[in-house]
Design brief:
The complex is a heterotrimer of chains A (95), B (391) and C (181).
Chain A (H helix, E strand, L loop, with lengths): L5 E2 L14 E5 L9 H5 L5 E5 L8 H4 L2 E5 L9 H5 L5 E5 L2
Antiparallel strand pairs in A: 2-5, 3-4
Chain B lengths: L7 E5 H11 L4 E3 L7 H12 L6 E3 L4 H13 L4 E5 L1 H16 L5 E6 L13 H4 L7 E4 L3 H15 L8 E6 L7 E5 L3 H8 L15 E2 L9 H30 L7 E4 L6 E6 L2 H14 L4 E6 L1 E3 L3 H8 L4 E6 L9 H10 L7 E5 L9 H13 L4 E3 L6
Parallel strand pairs in B: 2-3, 2-4, 4-5, 5-7, 6-7, 11-12, 11-14, 14-15, 15-16
Antiparallel strand pairs in B: 1-8, 6-13, 10-12
Helix pairs in contact in B: 1-2, 1-6, 3-4, 9-12, 10-11
Chain C lengths: L1 E8 L4 H14 L3 E7 L8 E9 L14 E4 L19 E5 L12 E5 L1 H7 L3 E2 L2 E2 L2 H11 L5 H11 L4 H14 L1 E2 L1
Parallel strand pairs in C: 1-4, 4-5, 5-6
Antiparallel strand pairs in C: 1-3, 2-3, 6-9, 7-8
Helix pairs in contact in C: 1-3, 1-4, 2-3, 2-5, 3-4, 3-5, 4-5
Classes of the chains: A alpha+beta (95), B alpha/beta (391), C alpha/beta (181).
Chain lengths: 95, 391, 181
């Protein structure tokens, strides 16, 4: 059998949280679920899923898909915080 | 006398390639047209358009993208094909490494054409000799029959699970690509039984996602993969011999081994050639034999893997050997010469000369080969450019 | 081995003529090759094509320098190209044109045929671009005994991309109307 450069490793095997010096934290009371953070994240570390338990600027936003940061893969680049038009993401220093 | 037209048809080398692709039941074709390869692509596009060939034809904006497309389709488990020439091959160079490194068993037909500047669309093999280190097997065809057969043979060898390296088969520009001659069309049924379906163990699968060619550090098995490619290439020599004899049995064909020895048994002087220029060389060998000079010819059917041991066996007892190159390298002798000499080093005591001939489509005539043999008899060592600077 | 060289202009069909002739010989159980000298082909530019015919498989792949026959699809080429260069002394010359004074080439066996009129009469091409390649092969069959007129007609019918009947007619008419020197 030849050696083929194909790897079947789950993404969970590559945990990159140690690269981070600060983490994005979403203030859901300001978040309109516009998904701009999700679109800009260069590491696909933001997932979208509806979660009515999260707060929102008003109730009609609660039915929409809310962004959730995957802290196992977020490297803390801060692009989401920079791009958020509602200042709903803050970069918090890691301890 | 054997009936010629009973089972044969007249076709150009490019038509023969397209027929070979059809017989191989290729599922994906992507190619960018370039003279003198264009009619391969035209013929295939027509076959796909009229339903003769059940294949997906991907139009692209460049050769680089053409090869990228078929690497991806091949890795999805669909037998794929591309074709190019000259500057197109140079533009593909990066992806040539990707195809072999990904162990994608593609077949690509290349119509050998000179490289500019100055612009030149005629025959010369520099374009593919430049690709000898990319991990592709290289087959140089002497006839339109071989152009068709080497597509089928190419897939058979490439797809062997101990090889999994891509194959390029070469046709000399115009001398084969646009020359019409009788070709035996292989039976579709036999071709299908011979090749079967492509079966890759690591094909792209949405249900089982993987990382293809992702980053490896110095401690990862990077170097091991390169050695594995090198091993596969060397080990393929045995398998190629077996597959050629299998091919000849199945199709009642007449392919040579990795090399063809022509009138070598008692030869004193011999030339080594690649591709369709070998035919006129054979004609010359017969002519000189009739005049009493014991000449012979070794034709390289495969150039990668390099059949060094076969050449070593064939040259024993020669008084002179001339390596003919229809390609040019600067600052050192030609690549075939280097390979031949390194195969003979310390094992055979034969003077070897190097001849450069036919660049930019300059016609190679019987008198040119006569001149080489004359030169072999009279001198040894050194390199000669044949039919250059003369009118 | 019998070697034929075609001289024409881009668009007149010299390359196709070389293929039809090869096919005709192939139908008579001969080995053949035919190939163009591929220049930067444009309509009107001089074009050369070659056919080789032999009883055995053909090894020689160089161009043809000493042909047994030369077929000229356009007489005006004879002013700008030395079409008979290398023609064997007992060679055959087939010219598209009415018979006239060709003293310098009279040592050859020459066939003249007005292939242009025959082509136009059969609706092949138009007055500025007549397609004379099939008619000229009829003349070649008359002058030489290499390939029969029947095989040329069969090959023409098989290979003409359109107007098959008209092309076959042109071959026959040229065969009948060819004048020998």
């Amino acid at each position: 059998m030849v050696i083929v450069p194909v790897a079947y490793l789950p993404t969970s095997s590559k945990e990159l949280s140690s690269w981070r010096t600060s983490r994005p934290v979403i203030d859901y009371s300001k978040c309109t679920r516009c998904a701009i953070c999700w679109k800009f994240c260069p590491d696909v570390a933001i997932d979208l899923s509806p979660d009515p338990s999260l707060s929102a600027p008003n109730d009609r936003f609660k039915a929409l898909e809310a962004p959730r940061i995957d802290y196992d893969h977020c490297k803390g680049c801060g692009i989401c915080a920079e791009e958020c038009p509602f200042d709903a993401i803050a970069m918090v220093e890691e301890e | 006398m054997e009936s010629i037209q009973a089972s044969r048809r007249i076709m150009t080398g490019n038509e023969a390639v397209a027929t070979g692709v059809k017989l191989s039941r290729v599922k994906v074709i992507s190619a960018y047209p370039i003279t003198p390869q264009t009619t391969i692509v035209e013929e295939l596009a027509e076959m796909v358009a009229n339903g003769e060939l059940d294949s997906k034809f991907i139009e692209v904006e460049s050769e680089h993208s053409a090869l990228a497309s078929v690497i991806a389709s091949e890795l999805s488990g669909a037998r794929s094909f591309t074709a190019s020439s000259s500057h197109g091959i140079l533009y593909m160079h990066e992806n040539l490494h990707w195809a072999s490194g990904m162990r994608a068993p593609l077949v690509m037909s290349v119509v050998n054409r000179a490289i500019g500047p100055p612009w030149n669309i005629w025959s010369e093999q520099t374009d593919t000799f430049n690709q000898r280190d990319t991990g592709w097997l290289q087959i140089y065809c002497e006839s339109n029959q071989e152009a068709m057969d080497s597509v089928l043979l190419g897939y058979k060898i490439a797809e062997n699970k101990s090889i999994l390296l891509p194959v390029m088969n070469m046709l000399d520009a115009f001398t084969l690509s646009h020359t019409s001659e009788p070709v035996e069309i292989r039976s579709e049924r036999t071709a299908y039984d011979y090749l079967g379906d492509l079966d890759l163990d690591f094909k792209l699968d949405f249900k089982n996602p993987g990382g293809y060619g992702s980053l490896l550090g110095p401690d990862g098995p990077f170097m091991e993969m390169k050695k594995d490619m090198r091993d596969s290439m060397y080990n393929s020599i045995k398998l190629i011999k077996r597959e050629i004899s299998n091919f000849n049995d199945q199709f009642e064909a007449n392919l040579p081994g990795l090399t063809e020895n022509f009138m070598m048994e008692d030869a004193d002087y011999a030339l080594i050639t690649t591709g369709a220029i070998s035919s006129t060389a054979k004609y010359t060998v017969r002519k000189l034999r009739a005049q009493g000079l014991k000449t012979g010819l070794i034709r390289l059917f495969f150039y990668r893997p390099f059949p060094g041991d076969d050449i070593l066996k064939a040259v024993r007892g020669l008084k002179g050997l001339g390596v003919v190159e229809r390609n040019v390298s600067y600052g050192q002798r030609g690549p075939t010469y280097e390979d031949v000499v390194s195969s003979l080093y310390g094992k055979a005591d034969v003077p070897v000369r190097n001849y450069v001939v036919g660049l930019g489509g300059r016609d190679i005539r019987v008198k040119d080969y006569e001149k080489m043999f004359e030169n072999l008899v009279e001198t040894d060592g050194g390199m000669e450019w044949i039919n250059v600077g003369v009118t | 081995m019998y070697e034929i060289r075609f001289h024409g202009r881009g668009g007149q069909g010299a390359v196709t003529a070389s293929k039809i002739l090869a096919m005709a010989a192939f139908l008579e159980n001969k080995w053949v090759t035919s190939f163009p000298f591929f220049g930067t082909e444009r309509r009107g530019a001089p074009v050369t094509a070659f056919t080789r015919i032999d009883d055995q498989k053909i090894e020689l792949r160089s161009q043809i320098y000493e042909p047994d026959a030369i077929i000229v699809l356009d007489r005006s080429l004879m002013k700008i190209v030395n079409v008979t260069e290398g023609l064997k002394s007992d060679g055959i010359l087939v010219v598209n044109g009415k018979s006239g004074n060709l003293a310098e080439t009279s040592r050859y066996r020459i066939g003249f045929v007005d292939a242009t009129s025959i082509a136009l009469r059969n609706g092949l091409g138009d007055p500025s671009h007549p397609i004379v390649n099939t008619a000229i092969l009829g003349a070649f069959a008359k002058v030489s005994n290499i390939v029969s007129i029947e095989s040329i007609k069969t090959a023409t019918a098989e290979m003409a991309p359109s107007r098959k009947k008209e092309n076959v007619n042109a071959v026959q008419e040229a065969y009948e109307e060819t004048e020998l020197n």
